[in-house]
Amino acid sequence: MAHPSQLGFQDAASPVMEELLHFHDHALMIVFLISTLVLYIIVAMVSTSLTNKYILDSQEIEIIWTILPAVVLVLIALPSLRILYLMDEINDPHLTIKALGHQWYWSYEYTDYEELGFDSYMIPTQDLTPGQFRLLETDHRMVVPSESPVRVLVTAEDVLHSWAVPALGVKMDAVPGRLNQTAFIASRPGVFYGQCSEICGANHSFMPIVVEAVPLEHFENWSSSMLEDV
């Protein structure tokens, strides 16, 4: 998860998030190169009184400064489109979960099981145990198997919400009357935190998301115990 004074992204916990981090670094290097070139031109123009008559009226340089930005845009657009299509791919999910946004908590329904669902509320500050995070912990976590494709159906009951977990590279709007879907693969076991990313009212800051990825055997034991409790 994020920590104080962090400058970069969270560590990637899914293949899509790794691709997003690589694309961020790729685009950032292009921005650095452009900024360096522009800064050099500005300093050169300000610090010299000489004038090159060939630069004042030159077809060649006009061709260069027209074609070069187009090439740069292509270098950014192609990997961006590739990642967009990767994020939209949902191939044979092993598990489907419906995330329903309310004011101000989340409900999860495991549609592959009968009557396996629960509400997920934020744990108040006074009830936290040592080691838990304020405003991020919930009384029930969304448990998923690691290294397995998981599909999440996202919708809302009342107003707009947004189901977002940065470490997994997932963010999907929850719209009343509309069923959106997204997917992710947790690359490793762990606990990943997120928050509602759409302003949804007074307690918008108090409806966190906690995804716990566990090995498949542990997930099967957890689901069996949950069904027994039901």
From TrEMBL:
Compartment(s): Mitochondrion inner membrane
Domain of life from the UniProt record: Eukaryota
Entry keyword Amino-acid biosynthesis: no
Alphabetic keyword roster: Copper, Electron transport, Magnesium, Membrane, Metal-binding, Mitochondrion, Mitochondrion inner membrane, Respiratory chain, Translocase, Transmembrane, Transmembrane helix, Transport
Transmembrane segment boundaries: 27-51, 63-85
Gene3D superfamilies xref list: 1.10.287.90, Cupredoxins - blue copper proteins
PROSITE patterns tied to this protein: COX2 (PS00078), COX2_CUA (PS50857), COX2_TM (PS50999)
Swiss-Prot/TrEMBL catalytic activity: 4 Fe(II)-[cytochrome c] + O2 + 8 H(+)(in) = 4 Fe(III)-[cytochrome c] + 2 H2O + 4 H(+)(out)
Cofactor: Cu cation
Domain spans labelled Cytochrome oxidase subunit II copper A binding: 92-225
Co-factor note (free text): Binds a copper A center.
GO molecular function terms listed in the Swiss-Prot or TrEMBL record: copper ion binding; cytochrome-c oxidase activity; oxidoreductase activity
Domain Cytochrome oxidase subunit II transmembrane region profile positions: 1-91
Membrane topology designation: Multi-pass membrane protein
UniProt KW Transmembrane helix keyword: yes
GO cellular component, one term: mitochondrial inner membrane
InterPro entries: CcO_II, CcO_II-like_C, CcO_II_C, Copper_CuA, Cupredoxin, Cyt_c_oxidase_su2, Cyt_c_oxidase_su2_TM_dom, Cyt_c_oxidase_su2_TM_sf
PANTHER family assigned: CYTOCHROME C OXIDASE SUBUNIT 2, CYTOCHROME C OXIDASE, SUBUNIT II
Purpose: Component of the cytochrome c oxidase, the last enzyme in the mitochondrial electron transport chain which drives oxidative phosphorylation. The respiratory chain contains 3 multisubunit complexes succinate dehydrogenase (complex II, CII), ubiquinol-cytochrome c oxidoreductase (cytochrome b-c1 complex, complex III, CIII) and cytochrome c oxidase (complex IV, CIV), that cooperate to transfer electrons derived from NADH and succinate to molecular oxygen, creating an electrochemical gradient over the inner membrane that drives transmembrane transport and the ATP synthase.
Entry similarity comment: Belongs to the cytochrome c oxidase subunit 2 family.
Listed name of the protein: Cytochrome c oxidase subunit 2
Native species: Sillago sihama
